[in-house]
Structures are given as C-alpha cells and as structure tokens.
Amino acid sequence: MRYLYLLFFVSITSYAQSSLSIGSIEPKIVLDASKNQTFALYLPREYNESKSYPVVFVFDNKARGASVVQRYTIASELTNTIIIGVNYTLNDTLTVALKQVNKLIDVTAEKYAIDRSKIILSGIDEGALVASSIAQLSSNIYGVLAVNDIYLDKPLLKKQNTIKFTIFSSDEGSNFYKLRAYSKDYTFKKYIVGYQTYSQNDWPDAGYLSAGLVDLLIESSTPDNEVQNFYENDLAFGTYLYRKQLHLYAYDFINNLKDKYKKRVDFSAQKEMLKKIRANAIYKSERSQYNIFKYEEAVLLEDFQYYLFEDTKNSYFDNLGWWGSQMDDIDSKIEISDKIVQASKSAKRLKAYVQSLVEQQYIILQTQDPSLDQLLFINVLRTLVDPVNYDAFIQTISLSAQERDYKAAYFYLEELLKAGYTDYEALYDIPHTITIRVGETYNEIIAAYLGKSKF
Question: How does pLDDT run across 382-404, given as a tens digit for each residue?
C-alpha cells in the first residue's frame, strides 16, 4: 500500500517556489527556440534552490518528454531527484548527440539546483544506446538507467571506473538475450548495479524506475533511515506486482532485494512474501512453464545463430524451408497467449531476436563483397522472418529480376502487395525490373491489388 499511497500523493501535490513549479510536471520548457527544442521538468516537493539535487535526463525514442517524466515522479519524490525529459530525439551521430547532451546539462544546471556530481542519463531503445555510449565518453556522468538496450565498452569503462548502470529488459524485446548476457558477464559486474526483466515493451512501471534509480544512488554512506525507506518502497512495489497476478515478476523483483540491501535491513518481511508467492498455485504453474520453455528456447537460440551464419555464407536456399517452419511454429505459440503465457513470451522474444539478428546479418553482408546468391538468400530470409519488411521484398524482386528469374520476381511482387504495400510509383522504379515492369503479368498483379497499372 505504501507504493500506492506515494503514487496518489505525487499525483495530487503541486505548489510553487521562487516562480518554479514544484511537485508538478512542466511539460514544455524552451531549451533552444531556434531548433524547436523543449524539455519537460519535474522538481521534487522538497526542492530548495539553496541545495543541490541529483538529476535524471531522460531520452525517449518517441520524444515523449512529459509522459516519461510522469513515470519518474515516484522515483523523484523517493530520492529527491530532479527529472528532465526532452521533447526531441538525439542526433544519430554520436559526436553531435554528445554536444546536445552537454548543452542540455549546462543550460539546465544554470537554471536549477543540480548536483553536477550526480548526473544520470536514461533512455529506452535507441535512446538507451545513445545515453550509455555518451556516458562512457563523458567524464561527468554518474550513472545510466537503460531500458531495452545498452552499449558497454570495456576499454572505455576502465577509464570511467566509477560509473554505474542499471538495466531493465522487456521479456518480449529483441535485445532480451543481449542484456541478459551483459548482466551475467563477470567483467561488467562492478558496473552493473541492477538488472530486471519486466512484462511490457514500453517504459517499465513507475515502481521499477524508482527501484532502478535507488540502485544507482544508494551508497554505503546512505543513512539507515533512507535505506529503510527505499527497501519498504521496493517491497511494497513487489507486493503490488503480486496482487496484479504478475507472480514471476513479483518473485524475481522481491528476491533481488536481498543483494540490494544486504546487511542494511531486516529481511523478515521479504522472506515472508517470497514464501507466500512460492506457495501460490499460479506461481508454481507459471514457474514450471517457464522452466520447460527456457530449455527449448535456449536450443532454438543456438540453432538460429549457427544456421544464419552458415546458410548465408553458403547460400543454402534449401534450408529456407526450415526457417519458414520455425517462424510458423513461433507464430502459432504467440497466438496461444491466453492459454500458455510463458510459451507466448518465449516465442515473442525469439521472433523479435531473429528479426533483429537477420537484419544485422544483412547490414554486415552489405559491407563485404557478397555474391548475388548471398544477397538473394538473405533478402528472401528477411521476408520469411518479417512478412511486412517491404524493403526485403523489393530487394528480392530486384535481385530475382537481375537473375532473370521472373517467376520469382512476380511471386514476391504479389507477396509485397498482399502485405499491404501501396506505393504505386515505387513499384515502377525497382532496379533491374525494366524488362518485366512493362509486361502484362507485372501490371496485372499491380492492378489486381491497387486497381490500376501503367502498362
């Protein structure tokens, strides 16, 4: 209940100090009017301009500054931390993004009581990748809260010996296996202070973010009363997950508290809650399902990694049937989500991972000197693992026409249109199709789906 009370209290509290809006979200504050750059701000209720506070700069891949800051308000109140979420995306070029972040830090540090020794970056997906990269290139970043992706570089980390990372990983995300591997890598152990999986594809619940911020900020010098407060809030959130019937997540979250608060708190309540969850019939069933599918998932993971490299290298078109069969099986498991949740989750993360893995292989192949067969194989495979990957279909049509395999070109043209492709003009601009695009068959297929053709 403590977690819910705090959520309610944060939601209704608002007042002003020195013309600043404290305890409520300012959704749009101008950073650079010439570039249409703004940010959302949340100052904790105890904010005082004469003091200094940790700050979290949040980079959302969809530039949802205010809505993401809202998720951080509980964390802000619990730890007395300033939250700033940008309403724009960082540049794809790392050096430019680094300048953007430094400018944001400098401008906001002039306006608000920011503790420059406690600067934390947070992001999701591409935002997490950029934030973690920037943190390792900078000398002034205290920690990173990364969601669904991260970049870690061992040589850079050796230079940044004190930086901390906490990681949240969606259990249906394409980077699930990558993040899990990082969390188990002994060489990163001193840097990763928190790792947690959760059951969404977007930002985690506010309670998770609160726990993650505590992971970064708690130190041996943190007063015992604050540590107790952090612990009670985490335990309350774990109980909240249990009441929401998220038994596996509740158990894992509460179980992790032992390492987090070792020798700092009394764990009697934690042990009782774990005992209660273990005795729950639904938990037992879900844990059993998870263990069954975990083994099958591990075997498939190794198969996908091995066969992708071998099949692409040797252009094993005969093995495309195996890939298609595996994807069909994965899709069927996703569809039975109401009956076997763990099977569905396993299938969803496998599918996301395979799609990402194949795309990475395609990018790598383009940097080499691939044969026409290798390019054709990888693009056909891209269509199999992701039936709405329009670029893969277009590349396959082009390559098939280049090989004068016109039946294949017509087949993938129709599959592209079945998938919902509607760019009429682009269909008449596919490389190497000049011979077939003026022909009767090509135009009949286009007319059948788009209602018109050029020839």
Answer: 999 999 999 999 999 999 999 99
